[in-house]
Amino acid sequence: MYIGKVIGSVVATIKISHLEGRRLLVVDRLDLDGRETGSYDIAVDVAQAGPGDTVLVLDEGNGARQILRIDPGAVRAVIVGVVDEVTLAE
Asked: SS3 for the chain, per residue?
């Protein structure tokens, strides 16, 4: 699981059946200082996130499939929340 920033979306007119009707967003991983790392995932959005949102991404395939209630299925990353604030202990 990681925190990332939505930097775009993916439009696909033809998808495998379990992705039909689902939004796909491009998410750039953030480091602990909140900077984009350039490492990204394409994630299924279940949290109604949008461009510029800071999000919580589950990037483990089995957990992602459980959230989407699909088995088997070709999914690895799912946006599970929109982050309001991050506070690190000193």
From this structure: CEEEEEEEEECCCCCCHHHCCCEEEEEEEECCCCCEEEEEEEEEECCCCCCCCEEEEECCHHHHHHHHCCCCCCCCCEEEEECCCCCCCC
